[in-house]
Amino acid sequence: MKNISLLLLLILMVGCAVPEAVRKEASLTLHGACKEMFFDNSPNGYQQVSQLNRNPIMLNFLEHSCSFALSMDANGNQSCGWGSASAVWSGKECFAGCWNEGTSAEIDALAMGRCEKMRQQSQGSNPTKNSCKVFARDNNIIWNKKSYESLELE
Amino acid sequence: MKVLSWNKFLLAIFFCFSVHADECNKIKDALRADENLSEETIFKLNEIIKKFNVTKEAEAKDLCKLNIIGKMLYQGNHFNKNEEAAENLFYFLSNKDYPEAQFNFSLLASKNLSHSPQDIINLLLGIYTKYIDDKEHNHLSSKAKLLLEGYVSNLNNTIKKCAQLKNKDNTCHSSYTNLTQKEIEDFYVFANDALINTNINFSEAMASGARRYYKKADTILAILSIGALAYSLSAPSFSSSGASNIPSGCGGFMKCGFEWNPMNLPQIQ
Lengths: 154, 269
Description:
The structure holds 2 protein chains of 2 kinds. Chain A is α+β, with helices and mostly antiparallel strands. Chain A has one domain. In chain A, 47% of the residues lie in helices and 14% in strands. Chain B is an all-alpha fold. Chain B folds into 2 domains: 13-98, no CATH class; 113-215. Helix content of chain B is 70%, strand content 0%. Chain B has 10 helices and no strands. Chain B has helices at residues 2-32, 39-55, 63-75, 83-95, 99-111, 117-130, 138-153, 155-167, 174-177, 181-234. Chain B is flat. Classes of the chains: A alpha+beta, B mainly alpha. The A-B interface holds A 61, 81, 83, 87-88, 90-95, 100, 102-106, 108-110, 112-114, 116-117, 127-129, 131-133, 146-149, 151, 153-154 and B 67, 70-71, 74-75, 100-101, 103-104, 107, 131-135, 138-143, 146-147, 149-151, 154, 188-189, 192-193, 195-196, 198-207, 209-210, 212-214, 216-217.
């Protein structure tokens, strides 16, 4: 029984660990509190929530379950925030059968909105420059990877 | 009989729409994979654009295919390349509230220097906010945001491009040619502030929704707790007398002075 518990614990720990490639890539950009927030593996942290939310039912409705937004000023100071599908569901006061509530764009907007609030608190009243943008969706880092010039017709 | 007719009618509508949607998706997939379109598909697309050119109207079932024709016109794929005709077609479809065409029109308009920057910014902001909660089209919202940020950041270069075109006797919209550095900054601030405020307002709406959600959840839990308490007080207790009615170490399959074997299973002696 003890062995089974240990095995389950080990599987959970391995399942929730940040992949090494993601850790390396994210560490190139993130530092300080934002790095901590992105790698947070506590029960309500970004890593746990984004990985626990990723299941076949949810991925049928949403492309990703969490977004992490980041802003960086010229001096390298960072502000960040993240949003999840479950936060959008509770924001929409959905109690049951919420898979079809909320969109990927709303998860992004929630992350960016929370990041903006943090940025306004740290940078004061001139918030237009260096606005928050999506850094990663789940563990897929998209920071500086998508350019408006690559946009195609629908 | 009436019910049967209605059913047939609904089935026909459902079938027709799903067939049209399927057909359109097949054409999209074929174009995406650079596959050749069948003779029949090309004939159908030609019929649709011919009809549109004559009537300047389109049925709801043809909007998707007209959007595809717009793309083909812009790319010069199966049709002679005609960017202006493509943009006009997307503009027509945008007014029919066709989401993909609204994005396509804004994308072409952002490259075409004959439109006012303020109009393009307003259009992209509109797409961003309109489709953010749309389950089918929310990707357009993300694309519109990316396009808007790129467009306002690149306005300086656009104006330089305009000056070069002016030398070649090409004309840009007067809003471009007369733009000052201060106005470029103002456009940048206006667009970014609008995006920031939209996101902040959304996150605040979600936060207040979540507060109501947790309050409701607390109320439900409190009601359930009161119910459980009331039940435990009113229901007969097996342990309140201080002595258990079940002999310790007995019951089930164990023989302990009384027999309890409803399924008549063999007993452990």
